[in-house]
Amino acid sequence: MKYSKRQSPVGAYPTPSPFAARAIKAKAKLDFIKFRLPSKATGRSALMVELDKWRRHGQLFVPKRQSDDSLTLHDPKPAQLQFLVDHYPEGHITAIEVTVDFFPTSSAIKRNFLPQVHEYFRHGLFPTALPMLTDATRKFYDPDDEKVKRDPLKASTNANTTYWRNRTRKATLRLYIKREADRGVFRRFVRVEVLLNRGGCQDLELYGFALLPEFLAAIGQRTATAFTLARGLKFNPATTRSTNAGLRAALDATNARRRARLDARFSCHGAMWCEKHGLPIARDTEANGYRPAVQTAHALRPFARVCPGGHVAVRFHRPVALLRVPSLSGPVIGRRSSLP
To answer: CA–CA separation, 64 vs 74, rounded Å?
Structure first.
């Protein structure tokens, strides 16, 4: 044993890695953005007309309760975000969701392939690297009781919806198998999504559409750590400089027992067991190459081109501040009339 060096990470996965065989591909997008309902004031006719057009196209959801003053824009296009930045810069953003979908690279896959991918992510995801998810716990949805329960941190073959969240509820990570229709053809894939609620948006200084261009320019880096995958558990063996053969043999035996115990714990309980006991993880660099540090930044590049412009004073509920917002005469990505 080389006492001056650390050993390799310990622990294993209950399913084979889909990244090692290049069996999946990733695609990221903005799933929705939620913002306050604008008041019907003078000069808002163009904004209200455009919002009503999105509503008729089924993309903008209006709450049924009169007490709820929020609107939800699903699958926003860069041109739509540019319109909101130009015409509604003081609008408050209360939630935004980034999703990463993992599709099989081949159509000839086994029936249990997606459940295995789901279990791989469930076992290895370590979202507590995102500051807003510090001290998060893993939960799952039980379809029998229709309740969200605390996960016992054991290997499972049930591909139930899994949640990671803490008491602050500033952010939530969710993992599930999604089925949707694409041009009349149903396809299934594994989705990992991170939802930033009001507190999470404020932590990232996203108070309204005036600050949206700066947020989108760094969205990949700001949300990437929520999708961290663990390779295993870091194991640092005890060392000694003694030349006593008996002492070194006893230390080797102690390290071997501790290594075997940690290997069994990670293999059974996964990365969240390390978070629970305050143990360091070894990050999977090969798998993390597919997370938003690369994939989201590339897929959301059109949104990051929502143009920044001059500086104007915008009034929020907090005191008036000098914020960066686009000039109303600046370029617009795409045509405003090209709606889905």
So the answer is: 17
